[in-house]
Amino acid sequence: MTVLLRSAANPSGSTTEQLLKTVRADVIERMQAYAADPRPEIARILANNIRILTLLTESIELAEANTRILSSND
What superkingdom does the record give (predicted)? Predict the structure, then answer.
């Protein structure tokens, strides 16, 4: 049984894209707190997070494509 994701056993769960969008929003919010920090470590963290955001966005697009595929088969 899935814990977070919607399924037959968990109809009130979230879709994959909903969860990924929530994570993406949290990363963006956390990055805003670091934006003015001049430390080189923070600059590296921000660079890593930008890459993470790119990967999350790609994952969201794939999850949305999955939803469209499943919807077209109904």
Answer: Bacteria
pLDDT of the chain along its 74 residues, tens only?
788 998 889 989 999 999 999 999 999 999 999 999 999 999 999 999 999 999 999 999 999 999 999 888 76
Chain centre distance of CA 66: 15
**What's the whole-model pTM score?**
0.86
- Token digits for 68? 């469209």
Q: Which residues constitute the domain of residue 56?
A: 37-73
- 62 within domain boundaries: yes
Number of domains into which the chain is organized = 1
